[in-house]
Amino acid sequence: MRTLIIISLILFFCAPDGRAQENDYTAHVNPFIGTERMGHTFPGAVAPFGFVQLSPDTDTIAYEKNGAYNPDVYAYCAGYQWEDPTIVGFSHTHFSGTGHSDLGDMLLMPTMGTLKLNPGTEDDPDAGYRSRFSHREEGASPGYYHVRLQDYDIDVELTASERVGMHRYTFHREGPVHVILDMLHGIYNYPEKNVWTFMRVESDRRVTGWRQTSGWARTRTVYFAMEFDRPFHAYGHEKTDSAIYRGFYRKFDETRGFPEMAGRGIRAYFDFDAEKGEQLQVKMALSAVSTEGALRNLAAQVPHWDFDALRAITARKWNRELSRVHAETIDEEDRTIFYTALYHAFIAPAVYEDVDGSYRGLDQNIHQSDGFENYTIFSLWDTYRALHPLFTLLQPRRTHDMIESMLAHQEQSVHGMLPVWSHHANENWCMIGYHSVSVIADAAVKGVYEDDLPRALDACVTTARYGLYDGLGDYMRLGYVPSDGNRASVSKTLEYAYDDWAIAQLARTAGDASVEKSFLRRAATWRNNYDAGSGFMRPRRSDGAWVEDFDPLDTHGQG
Amino acid sequence: MRTLIIISLILFFCAPDGRAQENDYTAHVNPFIGTERMGHTFPGAVAPFGFVQLSPDTDTIAYEKNGAYNPDVYAYCAGYQWEDPTIVGFSHTHFSGTGHSDLGDMLLMPTMGTLKLNPGTEDDPDAGYRSRFSHREEGASPGYYHVRLQDYDIDVELTASERVGMHRYTFHREGPVHVILDMLHGIYNYPEKNVWTFMRVESDRRVTGWRQTSGWARTRTVYFAMEFDRPFHAYGHEKTDSAIYRGFYRKFDETRGFPEMAGRGIRAYFDFDAEKGEQLQVKMALSAVSTEGALRNLAAQVPHWDFDALRAITARKWNRELSRVHAETIDEEDRTIFYTALYHAFIAPAVYEDVDGSYRGLDQNIHQSDGFENYTIFSLWDTYRALHPLFTLLQPRRTHDMIESMLAHQEQSVHGMLPVWSHHANENWCMIGYHSVSVIADAAVKGVYEDDLPRALDACVTTARYGLYDGLGDYMRLGYVPSDGNRASVSKTLEYAYDDWAIAQLARTAGDASVEKSFLRRAATWRNNYDAGSGFMRPRRSDGAWVEDFDPLDTHGQG
Fold first, then answer.
1. What is the pTM of this model?
2. Residue A313, min C-alpha distance to chain B (Å)
3. B421 shares contact with chain A (CB less than 8 Å)
4. Nearest residue of chain A to residue B201 (CA atoms)
5. Element (H, E) at B207
6. CA distance B116 to B533
7. Yes or no, beta carbons of B243 and A190 under 8 Å apart
8. Which of A68, A192, A202 comes nearest B242 by C-beta?
9. What's the Cα-to-Cα distance from B263 to each of A194, A276, A297, B237, rounded to whole Å?
10. Chain B residues touching residue A366 (CB < 8 angstroms)
11. H or E, element range at A379
């Protein structure tokens, strides 16, 4: 930053927040920061740490092209690219700031005119349901997003609670409206990613269902309950299944007005008629537990149809979270950069339980959180250095709950491992290290997590002794990760050694001298990759010899 | 039957059963009756009305051949064909006596020698894990089955409780043993039938997981928990997934010793070493709720390793059920025919809830049975005429519970319909009519179901007025099902009219004169298809005209 910033940190634990009453910190947030090129943020509507992250997706680039990875997909980690001229629709889950992707569940898109059940392409948007848009007719603030869909003259507004996304569509033409619900849409998509989709039209306003995918999260299911504020007069769907077996559903015309839809990939539509100036609202509640859970979340969180009230509540929640830091600066641009960064810091991890505390665990069974709120999306390699230590200071209650969530994950893990990179009841195994231990040690040392230190230490030690994991067996045997058979071997040694040091600190806090000593010894393993001759860290083979020729760019692999 | 049989019906409600103490009715059951050609029974081990129906499958004919229905598959509805020379393995769910099929979940097969992870073919059994067998080395009685696998010199014995199948393998050679768990195997199988399979190796004896399929039941999941009586020393799997995206699981060698497996179709193996004469036992518990539910079922129903005790308990349960009818005859063959038929009558519907009363409902949510045990497999077109009326007499408590199960199904149905042909939390829509109403009316008129007649009547009326169903809208409009646009139109009119008469009887019992009158009027609709000129029932078009030329063989369609 170019100017001097004086930051005074004020930590609020539970008391009402005077600063938030005096200041509107949300005015300094620009959700569009980071939406260009590889920033991997999204501009849509989200409550602080909310499970529902409702945002426009500007394209659906396929993860694979001609049977291989398509590097263009990387720009779409968060679904939105500033340079794109069209919006495909508005999906309800996104990653913010990650270097790989998934999600993009339950895409809704309001359209007018001819029904189109495919998204079309950027080059030929008229071939599908997508629409052109302009940044001049688009805006966003914490918990709120709006855009004009130029092809349909529809103003779309979005807001969200933690578990419910709310849409308000204003029509500027009269005529037939088709709201598309594309269950096939996804981020980092490929033909076999959708495992199963299921929908029930429960009434002429209410639809429930789920989407099951196999992507970065290998076995992932998201349930939904959707409600319109007035009845649709028709509905139907297409699906992508190729199997010729249809069983005895063949006695029905399933494509129109049949309330039970299931298959690999469903694209459904719901029809209304619009007068000029009329509005239509939709609520989409999510759950990782069941459609019953999604209905419960809907009833508990947004029982009303007051879009502006929900928007105001979520803005207040954001202001309260942002008020945890009062930054004084003479420059409004710096203030915007600062509060937008703080806003982005408070988007993930995300709450991952129903309003009744039930959640899907790593073992895919339904568990009940006891004394904590369950969180997901632990991007730990990316976040253990700065984000989680910041949370230890600014979000002590959530830090405590995140640690409880990690410990529950470890208990549910068939590997007995804490999260490496986890999301939506899955370990996705991305990146290296076992950095949960660093987050836990930091919180324990600072007294933010104090509940059961022996349990926490045991979870860390079990994780660090799981020989099947990514060179860890070799590391324990040799004192370093050998380069033969391992990518990024030096990075792994260094990160394991750091993590082991963190475990030693936790052991000291827990009063376990034996574990402390043992892990301090492991923490010294970095020396085995230190080449005193060159003064650099350097890979070694399993026979102990230094690797002579290696490509340093190749050592930063994702495992 | 050729000789005179005097049957005395004795109905037991809950009192201990003196007759069962005096007689062994199970000795008169031959489970192989009906296993030839199109009998569609299986010889395996099952408890009365048990969810687990553990039986050998003698082949895996594909449902499709060259993109079309393969008529040969029909012989394998129950998985077993008497004429076949080989056994593929032992799967844990089967239909008995149906005219379409599904299931065949979690096939286990003990093998010796070289590991083979495909089933092989009848022509070349040595190419796969299947084995030759002989009827001389095979036998079965209620709750028990045994066979010698000739290719491996292994004696296989099977027994079962309602929710747990138990295997005992006796090895007659020493050497390496591979127990195959084929999650891809299924009855009426085709390449895309498996939607997802998931497995966790929880310890060196315990494995949990599930199989999700889309077949006759469109959205079906069966969970399992499997335990061996001693540790396996190695394990691994292959899977059939074609997607190139593997995420970051690619950092592991998943094929051997990796405890977390997931994909479209898993074939796993578990390795042991056998001495000559040694035994190995396996327990496989099923649940429709979760792996946690399967573990609970295992712990509650078969906490021990005493195969002979479980076999004896299940035999006693069978004897008690069979003792409900004491048939006196001079001819042992007739006795066998009679008691085998009674045995087959008590195999389905099957209990479909965990030991704690939780079950998967038609809405795919988890429900709790309250005051009844939940049942599934309602083959109503096949069973409303004889089987259910027999149950009303012989199985009043189960009849009551089956009706409660049907009413719960109706409440969970997005169509508001009672079961037509339902299994495993699905309506499969096979055959015609809405014959649940006949079962309910019979039980209500006879006082076997008395709990809430208005609720039962409302469920029947709602079902009978669902215009989207199979010509029912036309039937209500015209007074008959027109032949244009409907197959089996005359049969539908006749069956709807009969069902409407049954609803009228229920209405009279419930004291609802208005519904009684209305449905007695509907019950007269059969007259609209009666051609007085020919004295035959005859199809009419929607304009009222008789159809002149029609193929009577074409009117018996499955909808």
1. 0.95
2. 31
3. yes
4. A414
5. strand B206-213
6. 66
7. yes
8. A192
9. 12, 49, 30, 11
10. 290, 292, 366
11. strand A378-379
Nearest by CB: B200 against A251, A414, A431: A414
CB contact under 8 A, B414 and A260: yes
**Is A429's CB within 8 Å of B366's CB?**
no
The gap from C-alpha B323 to its chain's centroid, in whole angstroms, comes to: 23
Provide the b/e sequence for B214-245 (b: ≥16 CB within 10 Å). Answer: bbbbbbbbbbbbbbbeeebeebbbbbebeeeb
Handedness of CA B542, B548, B550, B555 (dihedral sign): positive
Nearest residue to A38 via CA among A7, A83, A70: A83
CA-CA distance, A148 to A154, in Å (whole number)?
Answer: 6
The tokens describing B149, both together, are 């696998």
- Report DSSP letters for B297-349, one per residue: HHHHH--S--HHHHHHHHHHHHHHHHTTEEEE-S-HHHHHHHHHHHHHHTT-S
Q: Going residue by residue through chain B, which has 559 residues, state the pLDDT in tens, using 9 for 90 and above.
A: 444 444 444 434 434 457 778 899 999 999 999 999 999 999 999 999 999 999 999 998 888 888 788 889 999 999 999 999 999 999 999 999 999 999 999 999 999 999 999 999 999 999 999 999 999 999 999 999 999 999 999 999 999 999 999 999 999 999 999 999 999 999 999 888 999 999 999 999 999 999 999 999 999 999 999 999 999 999 999 998 876 688 899 999 999 999 999 999 999 999 999 999 999 999 999 999 999 999 999 999 999 999 999 999 999 999 999 999 999 887 999 999 999 999 999 999 999 999 999 999 999 999 999 999 999 999 999 899 999 999 999 999 999 999 999 999 999 999 999 999 999 999 999 999 999 999 999 999 999 999 999 999 999 999 999 999 999 999 999 999 999 989 999 999 999 999 999 999 999 999 999 999 999 999 999 999 999 999 999 999 999 999 987 666 554 444 3
Q: What is the C-alpha separation between B230 and B322, in angstroms, rounded?
A: 36
Is the Cβ pair B251, A559 closer than 8 Å?
A: yes
Asked if B66 has any chain A CB less than 8 Å from its own CB, the reply is no
CB contact residues (below 8 A), chain B span 372-401, against chain A: none
Q: Is A252 in contact with B68 (Cβ distance < 8 A)?
A: no
**Enclosing H/E stretch for A384:** none
